[in-house]
Amino acid sequence: MPNIRRFIVYILGLVVLSFGIAFSIRSGLGVSPVSSIPYTLSRISGQTVGFTTTAFYSFCIVLQLVILKKDFKLRHLLQFVFSYVFGLFTDMSMFLTRNLATDVYPVRLAMLAISLVLIAFGVYTVVLTDVVMNAPDGLVKTIADHWHIEFSKVKSIFDVICVSTSIILSLVFVGNITGLREGTIIASLSIGRLIGVVSRRYKEKIASLYT
């Protein structure tokens, strides 16, 4: 039963994370760095954010395979399942929040704040349950371990690459920068700290759900 409960809590973490992404998009104030490429690809291709998220995450898994080669294990391969399921949850969350878009700036800020809290809880729950790591973080960890670089440094560089790539794709294919605003900067500066707060205050409560 503990393993089943752990998996259920993990799935709940994915759902919470997907709603965090949906709220950040609906706020219209900019998505988080790791969501910037899927969002931009969605605007370019006309596909759903869930579909492009699955595609981007799958690309991150392929890069892990290229780096790890024979050290690529079944645990890494399971990230494909995570990516597909998370893509479905993201589309579900986008559908359920479809009527929340507004032009009222204070409300947008409130939605952004909600998104940051949801993302922090979602990310921490997924990490704490330790079922399957999400693909972008899996790629960051793979690079950090393979070349013996501090995880946080690789994460920071990865976020910059995501945002830079999103800007280039937006300018080339859309003609303007899309999905990147003050909320992107706020997310970059605050999500890590919020995860720290969740870890300190809610670790035992979250863990008690599956232990």
Automatic annotation (TrEMBL):
Species of provenance: Youngiibacter fragilis 232.1
Parts of the chain that traverse the membrane: 7-29, 49-68, 109-135, 156-177
Pfam family, one: DUF6198
UniProt-recorded name of the protein: Membrane protein YczE
Annotated keywords: Membrane, Transmembrane, Transmembrane helix
Signal peptide as annotated in the record: none
Record InterPro entries: YczE/YyaS-like (IPR038750)
